[in-house]
Amino acid sequence: MSTAIYSIPFLLSGLAVTLTMALLVVVLSLLLGGTLGMAVTYGPRPLRWTVRLFSDVVRGIPILVLIFFVFYGLPATGINLPNFAAATVALVVYKTAQTVEYVRGAVQSIHDGQTEAAKSIGLTFEQRMAYVILPQAIRRFLPPWINGVADAVKGTALVSLLGVTDLMHAVQQVVGRTYDPMPLYVLGAAIYFTINYGLSSLSRHVEGRYAYIRD
Amino acid sequence: MDYHYNFGLVWRHFDKLSYGMLLSLELALLCFGVGIIIGLLLALLHVSGGRLTRTLVAAYVETIRNVPLILLVYLVFYGLPTIINVHYNAVASFVLTLSLYAGAYLVETFRAGLAAVSRGVIEAGMAIGLTPLQRLVYVRLPTMFRIILPSLSNTFISLFKDTSIASVIAVPELTYGANWIGTNTFRTIEVYTIITPMYLATGYAIVLLLRQLERTFAVRRT
Amino acid sequence: MPTSETEASNVMTLRPKGGPAPVVRIRELKKSYGSLEVLKGVNLDVNKGEVVTIIGPSGSGKTTLLRCVNLLERYDAGSVQVDGIEIGYFESEAGLRKPRSERQVSKLRAETAMVFQAFYLFPHLTAIENVMLGLRRVRGLSKQRAREDAEHWLVKVGLSDKLKSLPAELSGGQQQRVGIARAVAMGPKVLLLDEITSALDPELVGEVLDVVRSLAEEGMTMLMVTHEMTFAREASDRIVFMDEGKIGAEGNPDEVLVSTQNERLRSFLRRAGGGRA
């Protein structure tokens, strides 16, 4: 048990890597996924199909397979990235596909009548988006997306298999030295739990705040 | 930079993939089944129980859902045998882990499904004199299952994909088979290119199958 | 923007009020959905200050006709002119008829504001914000000015105490009155009303019809689709009966509702009853 306590600083450095990666993944996937999500709802047909295809394929395979695929596949295309970067790219790809679906779901769930009412007072497409559709869509987008952020944090645990020194990797290393797995696993679980539980509480809070939007 | 593709080496070891795929499906089905039992029991407990029961169920659900699956897998396989006197192989350990994992997610599905059964239908059951237990068995549960069918199919597909985590403790499912071929033939890209459509096709087949089931059984909320 | 033809109209318009040119001028309007032809050549004028009501069985095309006037539906052939401007098409330099882009159409739509059966209020905005949105973003009014105008119209429809309420906090009748205020505040050339009371509980219908009646008395030009026969009779200047994509009968309320000889119209009126259909 005491070994577990002594290892905490080491675990925390792994946690820093985990959180950094999670943050990068969330921000990048939000930007990419948001853009592609709008493209898949309003773009020209060929673009819609391409993005749809991308999203369906990426979400249809296990995240572990995607990570390995990207990790081993990138060098073959001539791009050589350090482990951390390659793992981040893989997770960004995964999260982007999910974000596309969140955006698509949120925007499409806005009743057509809203678009019609907005049209009938003369608003242009951009104005409709800015003042009517997106304000409503954001409230539907946020709860599943925040949950998705928790998934991103959990997903980072897999990059330990690629040699990235995140929290999971740190836990495994200490276990490897002390041969006393349980306290470490429990400690690691507690850390992950704290972060993710906080995030899902936030998601529930957001959902509650905007519940007045009934339709 | 040139990379010379060689799929032949992969095909030679395809049995690892086909066997792995079957194992993945078996694992998914088994864990799904056990998960349903766990989830249903806990949902019923949560709904009918007191404060303590509800908190305990919630604690179980929240713990499993907020911790990475890979950590849970390690914990059960490497960790548990050191504190309690169990011996199991990798497959058994993974089945235990994934079943508990599935159960945690399914509790919420069942709880929401049960709540979605319309009051009118339950009252109709009361009106013909059914006891609470009879109402549960003959009215509420069957209705609930029809309502949650889409959600169940999504969960099953997720579970099928999660079986790939078993590869980290050397369970010879599809991803492990792919990694084995990759390590031994150095044809990692080729083998991943092959298992990608395998996962996709299986997922799609499951969707079609379940869509057919939905068409037969599912009910819209009233 | 050039107007298209200037041929003399030979459509009979009974008792036209206002100036010579009708506010809405529809000629040979045709619209199909795939192989289904919904509008088969409709001719209709709405003059300034007139209240024209369209009645007819479901599937006759009356809602489609209305939605063509504010281009929520694009029409395939024929002409729809609002205040002299062809709304759906323009003439290219080569003299060809080309459909207007969505951007051009957007601005034109403010002149033909519509009130919907299902209200479609913006749920994330309060009543006054719902009305202000078009005033600020389409009419370009300042926030202060928009607020004043919006308040004026909401008071007019009887909702002075509900300015800051969200749609979820309002009854159906109140929501519909906000919908009317939102449309009227835009200062449209013609107000389009699409079965605005069909989704309301019976006791809430009256308050909405009162608002419509007072707008009509003040000279608002209106084109209305409704099932409310009694209201149609007392508020309309003209009633148009649509049947299978064409106008079957047209005239003042007495002519159409009481003394018509048109067989199809008579059987429709029998089925529709004297009040709500």
Write up what this structure looks like:
The complex is a heterotrimer of chains A (215), B (222) and C (277). Chain A has 215 residues and is mainly alpha-helical. Chain A has one domain (2-209): MetI-like (MetI-like fold), CATH 1.10.3720.10. Chain A contains nine helices and no strands. Chain A has helices at 2-6, 8-42, 45-60, 63-76, 83-108, 112-120, 125-156, 167-178, 181-209. In chain A, helix 2 runs antiparallel to helix 8 (167-178) and helix 8 runs antiparallel to helix 9. The longest helix of chain A has 35 residues, at 8-42. The termini of chain A are far apart. By secondary structure, chain B is mainly α. Chain B has one domain (8-217): MetI-like fold (Orthogonal Bundle). Chain B has helices spanning 8-12, 14-48, 51-66, 69-83, 90-115, 119-127, 132-162, 174-185, 188-217. In chain B, helix 2 (14-48) runs antiparallel to helix 8 and helix 6 runs antiparallel to helix 7. Chain B is flat and about 70 Å long. Chain C has a domain at 49-69 and 109-272: P-loop containing nucleotide triphosphate hydrolases (Rossmann fold, 3-Layer(aba) Sandwich). Chain C has a six-stranded mixed β-sheet with strand order 8-9-10-3-11-12, sandwiched between helices. Mean pLDDT of chain C is 86; it is low at 1-16. Chains in contact: A-B, A-C. The A-B interface holds A 56-57, 60-65, 68-69, 72-73, 76, 78, 150, 154-155, 157-158, 160-161, 168, 171-172, 175, 180-182, 185-186, 188-189, 192-193, 195-197, 200 and B 1, 3, 62-63, 65-72, 74-75, 78-80, 82-83, 161-165, 167-168, 175, 178-179, 182, 188-189, 192, 195-196, 199-200, 203-204.
Short description:
The complex is a heterotrimer of chains A (215), B (222) and C (277). Chain B is mainly α and 222 residues long. Chain B has helices at residues 8-12, 14-48, 51-66, 69-83, 90-115, 119-127, 132-162, 174-185, 188-217.
